[in-house]
Structures are given as C-alpha cells and as structure tokens.
Amino acid sequence: MLSVAKNLIIRSDRKIVLLVADGLGGLPRPSDGRTELEVAKTPNLDKLVSKGIIGLIEPIEAGISPGSGPAHLALFGYDPVEYELGRGVLEVLGLGMELKDGDIAIRGNFATIKDGKIIDRRAGRISTEENRRIISILKENIQRIEDVEIIWESGLEHRFALILRGPGLGDGVSDTDPQKEGLPPLPPEGRDAPSMKTARILSSIIERASKLLQNEEKANFILFRGISKKPDIPTFQDRYRMKALGLANYPMYRGLARLVGMDVPELGYEFERLIDYYEEHYDEYDFIFIHYKWTDKAGEDGDFERKVRYIEEVDSYLPRIISKNPDVFIFTGDHSTPAMWKGHSWHPVPVLIVAENAGVDDACRLTEREARKGYLGLRRSKEIMQIALALSGRLKKFGA
Ligand code: ZN
C-alpha cells in the first residue's frame, strides 16, 4: 500500500469483487493483427465496460515479466518487491501445504548420486507414484530433528517440498544443488545464527535420508533449493479491515489468498463450483477474489484459439457474478500470457472497474488497444486495490 493511504483506512460495508483471469493480456497474431481479447466474443463483458472505466496495469515494473505469486500480491495491494516470495514458499503453496509464521519452506529434488558425485540431478525423472512411495518412507522416518518438526510433501516426478517448523530458524541458507552433474552436492551453509540452525537440521535430514534411500536405484539422494521463510505479511483484516474470501481451483492461488488472511475453501478443479460457492457465501464477506486459471494455461501452450475460448468462458460467468450487485467489481489478469509469447510477459494487462462514481471514458470493449485510451491510463497493479478501497468508501480524506 502506498504510504499516504496507510492511515486513512476506515470500515465500510460496501463489497468488492476481484475476478482474475490468469495471464489475460495478449499480443496481436500475425494473421490479422488482433489479440485474444479482440477476437473473443464477450457480450457480457462489453456491457460492463460501457458502464465502467478501463485502463492498463503493470504487475511489477516496466519490462519485468512476473510469476503469478508476486503478480497476485500486487493485485491484492501489496508491493511485490517489498513482500518478496521465496521459491520455496511458492513451491509449498503450490502443493497446497499450509505455512505458519516462522516456517521455513524448501524445494526439494530427488537425485542420483554415485561415489559422492551427482550423476543425475533429477533422478531420471522418476514417476510421481515412485515419488509418493519414497516420500512416505521419509515421512515415516524423519518427522522431527531437535525441536524442529519436518513436514514432507510429494510433487510431480522428481520434485517435492519440505517445511521446517520450529523456533529460531533462519532462511539465509545456501542451496545444496550444485546445478551441474558430475559434482558433489554442496553442504547447506547458514549466514547467521538462526540460518546455521536451519543448515544443521538440513544436514541431518540429508544424512538420514541418504541412509534410508541407499538401495534406491535412481532416487538415492535429496537436494535442497530456494530455502525461504514465510514473509511477514499483514492480513486483509489488519490492513484493510475487510473479511476476505479467496476462490481458486489451483493450490498456489489458494495459498496466496491464505497468505494474506483470506478464507479459502477447497472446491476441486471445476470453475463452476467456485461460482456456486460465491453465490452461497456472498453475504458473509467484504472482499471476494475469484481466480480463473485456464486463460494462462492456453497462453503458455501458445494456443491462441483456446485462449480465446477460455476468455469467452469467463465472459459466460459474468452475469452470475454481477447479479449479486457488488459495489466495486474489478476484472483483470495478474499478468499477460500472450499466446504469441508462450509464457508470462511484462506487457501491461487490461483492467476494468465497475463502481458508482468511478469516473468516465468512452470504452465499449476491454482490449489491450482500447485500454490504452481508458480513464485509468497506465498504472501499477498494486494501485488498483487502493482505487477499490476509495470507491468502496474505505479511504478518508488526506489532510484538512
Ligand atoms: Zn498468473
């Protein structure tokens, strides 16, 4: 939040709904020079655009392509650089593990070691079932070291994650993955006293795991990376005085929502279930975040047509969302994932805000081209929450 607004927050009963289509922004395709949003037929969105104001938002800074973690924190109104999320933290959130204050989160890899040297950093990409079998051995045998609880979780193929939970742990610890085959693993090294404790626990885990896994053909060693601490981040309740609900099908987004204090039900992988839940529980919350993942997936796959279809699918759900009459409705993406780019990009993302007295523009479609001319202009993603707070009557006047 920007420094001016910090002390201006007041309570209000007006409701804010934020709908995020992941990776929404796109780029023109060569055949006709039109973007995914320009090609998509979005009658419901068009109606809202004519009532609201639009613009473009930059997730982090000009030219910086973000991950979905920081890009969402920005949409939630947090400076994504101030509250940087470590790789380990994002990994454990992605696997649906719950992080508590003081926890250390770590990305793990199974590897193959021979004569003290790593010969395969990914253990031949063992199957996910193999992974689960081995993690269950580790779970059973390595639960606690000193006063620290060890929590394991399987990922896909050779990946897993780990949480260390206990007093006085630091995250200034080096990776043990030498990043190259033919080299011995590196010892974990701590930069300060709390981090030395973490390093000591990790060394002991590695030693015990090596014994337990010594007869495994491929996964006979473990490597640690991205050792990071849960960020000390204020909740929506404390920061905005809002009770918030986060609705998402994928664990990482539920984890991000939980990190800022939202209530986060687990509803499976159908988007429709999120909307059902939204309708049933709308009255209980001040702020509701709804996440739609599939636009990003299609963009990453470079599938322009499929991304268009997914944008149209999001559009088809808008009447149900809007029928609750939220006082402030925001629709945007966390970042752009142009099909032409096949990945997250830095390009600014179109944003729509519908609220009483929001402002005025002539826009009738939400596209990259139209958004440039909108009332909101070009701004940073983290500012959108501040505008939503103002439009919902949560910011009092600055100065007399
Ligand atoms: Zn994303």
Structural write-up:
The protein has 400 residues and is α/β, with parallel strands linked by helices. The chain has 2 domains: 3-85 and 233-391, 3-Layer(aba) Sandwich (Alkaline Phosphatase, subunit A); 90-228, no CATH class. Helix content is 32%, strand content 20%. It has 13 helices and 13 strands. The protein has helices at 36-39, 43-51, 68-75, 87-94, 128-141, 193-212, 236-240, 251-259, 271-281, 294-300, 304-322, 368-371, 382-391, and strands spanning 16-21, 53-58, 104-114, 117-120, 144-145, 148-154, 159-165, 221-229, 244-247, 287-292, 328-332, 349-355, 377-380. The strands form 2 sheets. It has a 7-stranded mixed sheet, with helices on both faces. Strands 3, 4, 5, 6, 7 and 8 form a 6-stranded antiparallel sheet that branches. Helix 10 (294-300) packs antiparallel against helix 11 (304-322). The chain is globular, with a radius of gyration of 23 Å. The two termini are 22 Å apart. Bound molecules: zinc ion. Zinc ion (ZN) binds at residues 22-23, 68, 71, 296, 334-335. Zinc ion is lined by residues 22-23, 68, 71, 296, 334-335.
Task: Output the keywords.
binds zinc ion, Alkaline Phosphatase, subunit A, alpha/beta, 20% strand, 400 residues, 2 domains
Radius of gyration: 23 Å
The CATH level-2 architecture of the largest domain is identified as 3-Layer(aba) Sandwich
Distance between the termini: 22 Å
CATH topology of the largest domain: Alkaline Phosphatase, subunit A
The overall pLDDT average reads 95
**CATH class annotation of the largest domain:** Alpha Beta
**Based on DSSP secondary structure assignment, what is the total number of beta strands?**
13
Number of helices: 13
- The stretches of 5 or more residues where confidence is low (pLDDT under 50) are none
In CATH terms, the superfamily of the largest domain is Alkaline Phosphatase, subunit A
| Strand-pairing-aware structural class | alpha/beta
Tell me the fraction of residues in β-strands, as a range: 15-25%
Percent of residues in helices:
25-40%
The small molecules bound here are: zinc ion
H/E series: EHHEHHEEHEEEHEHEHHEHHEEHEH
